Structure formats: C-alpha cells, structure tokens
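One example copied in:
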Amino acid sequence: MGEVRTLLDGRGLVESPRWHDGRLYFSDWSAGEVVAIDLDGRTEVVARVRSLPLCTAFLPDGQLLIVSSTDGRLLRRDDAGNLSVHAELGGTGWNDIALDGRGNAYVNRMGFDLASGEPVKPGGVSLAPMDGGQGRSGGRGGSSPHRGRVREVADDILFPNGMAVTPDDSTLIVADSYRHCLVAFDIGPDGDLTGRRVWADLGDGTPDGICLDEEGAVWYADVPNKRCVRVAEGGAVLHTVTLDRGGFACALGGPDGRTLFIVAADFLGMAGEVVTPGSGQVLVTQVDVPGVGRP
C-alpha cells in the first residue's frame, strides 16, 4: 500500500468515482456537477445536473449515464456533451448505478426520504434494459417480454448504496449500508436477479460506494468509520485505508489499474448541510491488486 495523497480539495459532497479513458469522473452533489480530473489534477466540468443523489456510469460505447434522482430519470450524455433521457425511472429516491457488459443499467432506490426523518423502509434495485427503456433497437436478442421496460428486479435492501457487476457479468454486488453487509445476486440472461445471498457480513462496517479487484475482493468506502476497506467474500478484512473524514466511494483505475481513488468529505448528517462546505476531496493511493469490472 502506498501513502494517501490529495489529488483535489475544496469540493462538496463528492461521490460516484469512475475511471474512464485516462481520467477519473466523479460527482459533486453539492454543486450539481459531474467533474473529470486527470492524474495531474486538471479538472473539467462535463455535466451539470441539479440532483441529490447524482451517480454515474459509462455505457459500452463510452457515453455517460447520469442518475437524475430528483426527476426520476436516467440521462445520457453524448460525445458533444448534450443530455437526453435514456430511461424514465419514475418517482424519486434513486441512488447508485452499475452496468453489465450488454449495457443493462441497474439503478437502486431508497425506500424512504433520508433527510425527512421518516421511518426507514427497505428499497430495491431496478433494471433499465440495454435499449434504455425507450424502445430503441440494439443489444442482442429482442424476444424478451421485458425488453424496453424499467422494472424492479430486487427488493428488501434496507439502504441500497454502491453496486458493482463482476467482469463475467454473472453477479451483481450491492452494498446494504444499514444492514452492514454486501449482498450478491446472480444475473440471468434477461438481466433478472436471483440467488440472493450475503456476500460479506461487515460487522460494524457501513458500506457506501464499492469497487472490485482482480482477486475477487471488494473495496468499500465507509462514511461513519472514516475508512476504505478491502474485504474478501465472506467478510475477511484484507486491507484498511484510514481517513480523516468520511469515505463516500472508491474506484480502482490509473494506467495499470492499481490506483485506488477515494472521494471523501467531512460528514455532518443528513439534516441540513450534509458535509462541511469545501471539505470534499479526491484522494489517491497505490495498491497491489488492480481493479476489474466496469465504471
């Protein structure tokens, strides 16, 4: 493990880091911006969407998908920077997103308003199929009765947070923050989720954003415990990166896939200002095992 250094400072509630095409993309929920940064610290705002949460993923063709939770839409950014509706999700409370190799988008949703103080209710995971739920052609097959329709494919996740799809497209791993565990599902040919199981019991760990590495381990960021932790299936702790503020999400990338990017901020709670203004950082450290999967 290398030392932790600061690549960028002075942001707000930072989330959803994704390594793509030589840069790290992340969201600043406070500013309503999706930002790209290179390893020299040069930044570019690539999209502005006023939404909380504001998570992203990349389609196989390189176009960026953005979860606009506020209006219940999945947006697509084309190469010219224009935004269009990729899928109508409906309602609010949408959070993180992960894609499989066919372009199927898994988007999870909280079952309660975190900021309002209403009773906690489980949320779930929905699937926006490869054609974006808009009836466009593309992908493979075409005979599925579910094609083009956004549908819920998993429920009873108390606080669904970070997600990742394994490189062989066989498994979706979901962080359940309030149950302090990682949950796994088998991915079927039509994108349906079956075979639910606890992938790792994290004890006092509170997983937020996650990523996968070549040895099949998961890195998870932890806000209340101010750390980023690498765990094996079953929950054995392999490595811990200690932080001085809440770790909101992490991603593996860089030229050889061995740079661990951590987005962190000083967490204040869900009522009012969520993080201390200007405390959001992008941190980097070198690890031994490179990342896998899709951003």
Summary: The CA atoms of residues 221 and 228 lie 4 Å apart. Residues 133-147 have pLDDT under 50 and may be disordered.
